[in-house]
Amino acid sequence: MEKVCVLGAGSTKYGKLDDSITDIAIQASVGAIESAGIDPKEIQAGYISNVFGVADKQVHLGPVIMSNLGIPEKPSLSIESACGSGSVSFREAFANVAAGFYDAVLVTGVEKVTHTGTEWTTTYFSYCSDFFYEGGAGASFPGLFASMARAYLTEFKATEEDLARVAVKNHDNGLLNPKAHLRKKITIDDVMKSAVVASPLKLYDCCPFSDGASAVILCSEKFAKAHSKNYVDVIGSGRGGSPATLQGRDHMTTIPSTKLAAEAAYKMAGITPKDVDFAEVHDCFTIAEIVDTEDLGFFEKGQGVHATREGRTALNGDIPINPSGGLKSKGHPIGATGVGQVAEVFEQLTGKAGERTVKDAHIGLTHNFGATGASCAVHIFKSV
Amino acid sequence: MAQQAQAAQSTYSKACRDLTDKQEFIDAIKSGKVLARKCAKCGHLHLATIYFCQNCGHKEFENKPLDGNGVVATYTIITVPPAGFEKYTPYAWVVMKIDGYDLRISGFLGGIGSPAQLPVGSKVKITGYDDRGILLEKQ
């Protein structure tokens, strides 16, 4: 297996964007190419991550992006895996570079949905669930995670304030990220007083619907060394699945695919959770970050809320979680999110994260899933 | 429906024909039952909409209709609904644990506006199926 590296990364701002889905995808891709310092002709394939291209009248995004980069002859494919599309695309790109099929590839994730409004997004996102049992019975995505939250609060005697702390912490981090969607300091009281979306989750427990695009250049170590000193090694890659429905799971307070993906990634990297310096995790809702940090092995089951309360997951804590602001504050353009996490880790490990830099960090982890974690990918990166 | 089933039987195995008939599952729901499928080899129970045993991979099953009674395993109360559910809002979406079995099923439970009305562990039952999916009521 070839050693694989991230050579460059680019992102648009996340938020409500005016430009088209095609335009923002190209902006992020150009950013990644310039960051890598390569000639676009050196890219051998494109992996495009997107869920709702139909919302902005553009599917089959791959050839459109490649054509605009001046490389229409290069192959591309689009990958949909709900909110986990970005990390799943990254994984497929990783596998092909690791296998030696390609020396350098582009991974671009993009989403453009905010112009459709809350009802459209709530409805269409619910199609990512097992519709017969969940979306079709009135369960929105906030509703599904609210059901996990209810189970967690009941089982571990945690409080809604404990969940609110995740939102407060991630907003603090997002304030330091110029590309974040929600750059606003909030308090526990703000979260508790925000409108209930799906009990027990309130508006500020939920990530926003965002537009945005992120892209990275993934390449072999040989290719990286020939081009730059500013690259990051991909040392672990893991994937896993869970029953598509919540009802199909023995426990509602854990996501089986996260454990499987993490176990595989740690094994490939030859490290344990204790070796990870910081992580970008899938905090689509506050409860998700708590569950993720436990499933990833950073804390014992039921201890995630205590770790957050003690500040251990803050930017200056012993295991900073979501220094970018996470999905909660940085935003969640669903096709872009998993790629954007990699872009954040690349920036952190190459000294480009500015004020939100995690001190003395050498190993970063990304964790991104689709739906309620029916699909999941975990990647581990190391500075060179 | 019968014609379709007959046509299917000539093409596919009996197990395949039975399992693709989701209507049978929905009909059972309408009469308050959950049509579970018991693996003919290891006895593992699944909801009807499964094609290979999750435990052993076997593909033959026996029908096992269960009473649609249970308790709330977890739930939410939706106040921002997807399209089509506006007129029912607020309502609960519930994961119900089926009495006597390690099996859960989820569905719509109307008329719930506050958590006090539906503590985890509340007794609920299946009452029907319509454009709101599987319908549950408090017992």
Secondary structure: elements and pairs:
The complex is a heterodimer of chains A (384) and B (139).
Chain A: E1 4-11, H1 21-36, E2 45-49, H2 61-68, E3 76-79, H3 85-98, E4 104-111, H4 118-125, H5 141-156, H6 160-174, H7 188-193, E5 196-199, E6 201-202, E7 212-220, H8 221-227, E8 232-241, H9 256-269, E9 278-280, H10 286-295, H11 304-309, H12 326-329, H13 337-349, E10 363-370, E11 375-383
Parallel strand pairs in A: 2-3, 2-4, 9-10
Antiparallel strand pairs in A: 1-7, 1-8, 4-7, 5-6, 8-11, 10-11
Helix pairs in contact in A: 1-2, 3-13, 6-10
Chain B: H1 2-11, H2 14-20, H3 22-30, E1 33-39, E2 45-47, E3 61-67, E4 69-78, E5 91-98, E6 104-109, E7 123-130, E8 133-138
Antiparallel strand pairs in B: 1-2, 1-3, 4-5, 4-7, 5-6, 7-8
Note down, in words, how this protein is organized.
The complex is a heterodimer of chains A (384) and B (139). Chain A contains 13 helices and 11 strands. In chain A, a hairpin with a 1-residue loop joins strand 5 (196-199) and strand 6 (201-202). Chain A has a domain at 4-116 and 209-227: 3-Layer(aba) Sandwich (Peroxisomal Thiolase, Chain A, domain 1). In chain A, 36% of the residues lie in helices and 18% in strands. In chain A, the strands form 2 sheets. Chain A has a 9-stranded mixed sheet, with helices on both faces. Chain A has a two-stranded antiparallel ribbon with strand order 5-6. In chain A, helix 1 packs across helix 2 (61-68) and helix 6 (160-174) packs across helix 10. The longest helix of chain A is centred in the first third of the chain and has 16 residues, at 21-36. Chain A is α/β, with parallel strands linked by helices. Chain B is an alpha+beta fold. Chain B folds into 2 domains: 2-67, no CATH class; 69-138, OB fold (Dihydrolipoamide Acetyltransferase, E2P), CATH 2.40.50. Chain B has 3 helices and 8 strands. Chain B has helices at residues 2-11, 14-20, 22-30; strands at residues 33-39, 45-47, 61-67, 69-78, 91-98, 104-109, 123-130, 133-138. In chain B, the strands form 2 sheets. In chain B, strands 6-5-4-7-8 form a 5-stranded antiparallel sheet, with helices on one face. The chains are: A alpha/beta (384), B alpha+beta (139). Chains A and B meet through helix 4, helix 5 and strand 5 of A and strand 4, strand 5 and strand 6 of B. Strand 5 (196-199) of chain A pairs antiparallel with strand 4 of chain B, so a sheet runs across the interface.
